[in-house]
Amino acid sequence: MKKYNYNKKYEKRIKSLNILKYHKKIIFLYLILLVICMDNVVLAEKNLENYAQIKKNLLVVSVEVPEEYIEISPGEDLLATINIINKIPEGRIDVVMSYNIKDAYGTELISKSETIAIEGRSSFSRNFRIPENAVPGDYTFNVEVKYDENTGVASQSFKVIEITKEEKDLIKILIIVALIIFSIVLVYEHFRISTILKLSEKNLMKGIGRY
Fold this sequence. Notes:
It is built from two helices and eight strands; from the N terminus they run H-E-E-E-E-E-E-E-E-H. The chain has about 210 residues and is α+β, with helices and mostly antiparallel strands. The model has no long low-confidence stretch (mean pLDDT about 80). The chain has helices at about 1-55, 165-210; strands spanning about 60-65, 70, 75-85, 95-105, 110-120, 120-130, 135-145, 150-160. The protein folds into three domains: about 1-55; about 60-160, Immunoglobulin-like (Sandwich), CATH 2.60.40; about 165-210. A five-stranded mixed sheet has the order 2-8-7-4-5, with no helix packed on it. It has a three-stranded antiparallel sheet with strand order 1-3-6, with no helix packed on it.
């Protein structure tokens, strides 16, 4: 009888262990499924973010400042070329294009906006006069293109360099010398052409006199 009770107890213990192992397997599988579900949720969120980003990037904007304008002086013009790729299904649309120039501290130097029509790929060149009182340093040209909820932005850095008084005086002297040389060449050419015309006229009169 005791042996029978012992076997019963042993069997119950075996069953309990088996049930525990089974529960552990269930929990383990549940954790695996939970991890997989979480990964899918994260992936879905990333896909939604990417989709939203793609939707926002229906206006692709870039800006180029030619190499000769990367360093300019106060009072000179900055030339910038704005390139826009329009991926909006409507085709030809009117967008608001805003520009600004800021220094290294975020202080706005120039601000301007205009409405333009674009379709497919478009390119625009704009000139911006740098104020005479602009402080030498690093600046950024920024452009923003908007249509409804779609926005495209781009920027390009450039430098405003200082011209010394000696350099300004040298430039003035070179301009004056160039004007003097041009005037001398102009007078010389006028005199030379007049002389040729007079000689031609004399030769023509001599030829007529012979006949």
